[in-house]
Amino acid sequence: MPFPFELPTTSSFLFSTYFTSDSHPSLPLAASTYRGVLRDVLKKQKRLSPSQQASSLSSILQALNNYIPYLLALDSGISSQSHPGAEHIDIILTSTPTLEWRPTLSAPLIPGREIPRLKIQSLEYEIYFVLSTLAYTHVLLSRSSLHPLYSSASASPSPDQRTSCIKIATEQLLLASSIHNYLFTRSTALTSPPPCPDISNPVFRALSSLALAESTLLAVLKDDPYPAAVQQDRNKNDKEWMIKAPDMPKVRAHLFARLCLAAAEHAGNAVAILGGMGNGGKGKVEPELLKYVEDLRRVGRGKACRFFGVDAELGGKTGDGIGWLRAGLSELGMSVGDDGKKPSGMGFGRLKKEWTEKREDRRVENGKDWGSDAGKAEEGRILEMLEKKWVKVNDTIGTQLIPSIGTLISSLPSGREMHTVKTYNPPSLEVQVLESMRAPPDRADTYEEDDSSNDDENGAPDLNSEKSRYVLDEDGQLYAVRVLHRLHLIHQFPVNPHQHTASSLPQHYKFIPSLRATIRCATDQLYSHLYPPSVVWLALDAEYHIQHVFIHTYLFLVTRKCPAAFLQYLACLVLLSTKRPVAIIGKNAVGIRYLELIVLIEAISSS
């Protein structure tokens, strides 16, 4: 519950290399900027441990929501399709773009190996990958919301907390379903075959049905007391049983059963679609996804049988209730006869069951692939608990005949819908932002990206490389930061920045506020994992083009509480490598406050 999607990663790409705009010259550069942010956060998220990945989903969601309006603005400019009353955008394609994405739903040709990056030459496929990533992120956010319900590391949540978690998860799943449905509608008009199953029309339809099925089951889970009771019984940190027994309120069993059948029908549609992938020669989807969708279909039908059994037991028909419970176990794929006896497993069945439950508990605590069976094991425990209780009552108090499993399954009614998938409206650029794109870019689009194909690379960045890193400050602006293999220093400052204003400075000095923001956010984010929090240092290579003057400088910065021994070591290192005197700029510098640091840069003309 729900499926643990893996987010795709992408390579670097500069829109300004392939697209130009006479009406909005800054639009390609801005799109490249926000795409670089998205690429960076996706790579960082993949390098995190499973328990840490949930905390980075908010930054990924923000990066996606920032990039999508610019991407769709480029697409509308190329296709010359604008909404009524919207500003016209003129985009010219100068050459065929080549973008790369790494699919995550396609089955690898060689089992056990990662799928290589896929080259696409269409902006439409870029939109498919980005919006699919947005939908996956919403599904993962729903998983993080549901995680406290299944964790045994702390006490079970209260009913209000449980309802709140389920409500948030349901909203995320419905939004994911609407995004997939939007992609399905949009890709219907595409005539060329897709390059991989991840962005194919059938998969969009299947994933929309899958998210709808999961959200429907969550609507039932909100008022279903049995999963909480079973989880509370297995949670060693829960002490509520000392005060009172779990409440088992009467439920609208017949309604919940039909909702579960509707969820099973949606999951069945997804199974049929995904199972047929690969017949056209374009590859198959991951076996884990196929198995999960099939398990979800079984869980939906198993829950429906349980609720029909609860309805029968509340009406005094304990025999029919036991029959429905055994029918539910049969739907889950657990072998059980009409007499309720299971096939012998040489005495290892109970040991295997305990081992499976402990493995699932470890998955929940580690945050990796928990719920990958779509809740089949949890539903099996509920059915077995109720069957054991009702069989005892039926054998001792009132003996009733138990109908056969086949007779009950054949009488299952049709499902009933709970949710309606709303139409997804992609975000668009605000009028003020789009008008600002009419100005020419204020600097050359010359930055580079680390385009390493190894997305699983761990460890600190290599200081011997000259590849750029990207940093996003709190204002949502992005700056390129290049790591140098030598520590080049700017010349000694000839003036105190606080004694001058922009108008009183000579012509060859300029205020660079964006560089100040770069220093502030880069020192806090880029190398905090290399050194303790008290020691953060950075080498910057800044390039600007202001008023037809090319500015090129190297800056060395030490900030926060830096030990004196570390400063002496840096001074010796810089002196030996550059043969230049040391200039330290930071919080402890005389006459300069770090948060108000204004960097003066000597402008060097092209001559």
UniProtKB/TrEMBL annotation:
Residues 1-262 form the BRO1 domain. One of its GO terms (cellular component) is plasma membrane. Residues 447-459 have a biased composition (Acidic residues). It comes from the Eukaryota. Residues 442-467 are annotated as: Disordered. InterPro entries: BRO1_dom, BRO1_sf, pH-resp_palC. SMART domains: BRO1. One of its GO terms (biological process) is cellular response to pH. Belongs to the palC family. This is pH-response regulator protein palC. It comes from Monilinia laxa (Brown rot fungus).
